[in-house]
Amino acid sequence: MVRLIASDIDGTLIPYGAAALDPALFGLIRRLRDRGVLFCPASGRQYHSLRRLFAPVADAVCFLCENGAILYGPGPEETAPVLSRTPMPREPAMALARAIQTLEGCRVLLSGANTSYICDSDEGYIAYLREGKGNRVTRIADPGEIDEAILKVSAYCPQGTHGPQRVLGPVWGEPFHMAAAGPDWVDFGLADKGKGLRELCAGLGARPEEVVAFGDNWNDAAMLETAGTAWLMEGADPALAARFPRRCTSVAEVLEALLVSAT
Q: In the structure, what pLDDT confidence band is assigned to residue 138 with cuts at 50, 70 and 90?
């Protein structure tokens, strides 16, 4: 029996470079809920960003945000229950943020519970986060100004992630999880989507084997391994394809088939 659908967003539900979901997805989410199946966007994105993206059904779904560092149950934005939170140790997080600041062509983003903190005055970058991604953004002069727990530290790498990963990975790949999140982001945190999914299941009283999960990138791998049924998007890294043989080109088509088979 399927009780939960967990899906990555960028590269999975939305092609890279696109900005909006297919409206037909909202009808599928409602039909799934009528059958007792919850839908959960599972992303490195911020809660506010995800709610804007899923606005027509935002109060009726769960949210696995910041790569699993914070989980929300269904409900309005200001009152939805926080099911789990996994902060980073503060001093290492600050040191990592400052290391990212030294990398040419990279920008740092530090994630609180529902705020993106940036040490940057580039209006184009700010517009990209606020308007393109739908984030709540606060500008700071130094990471030390942040007065809440840090859930994730990210490097925005518009020139590509391979070089930054080679530099940052040997130093910061432990104790943190490091994963590419699309073609221009590298994320670090104590949580990953697999841990987030396990904690979400515990909060909802579901079992991982009752989950169908969709993803396309390395930051989805732990979630795909945790779920009872894992779907990898066509075009994913061949090394991932070797680990997850069940592949699709459309999440909506798989969900439609799931609904049909359940009738």
A: very high
Q: What share of the chain is helix, strand, coil (3-state, %, to 5)?
A: 40, 20, 40
Residue by residue, DSSP assigns 50-98 as HHHHTGGGGGGS-EEEGGGTEEE-SS-TTT--EEEE-PPPHHHHHHHHH
Token pair for 120: 């940057």
Q: Tens digit of pLDDT for each residue in 182-214? A: 789 999 999 999 999 999 999 999 999 999 999
Strands (E), 97-233: 107-111, 116-118, 137-139, 152-156, 177-180, 185-189, 211-215, 229-233
> Chain-centre distance of CA 151, in angstroms?
12
Q: Whole-model pTM? A: 0.93
Contact 234, 248 (CB under 8 A): yes
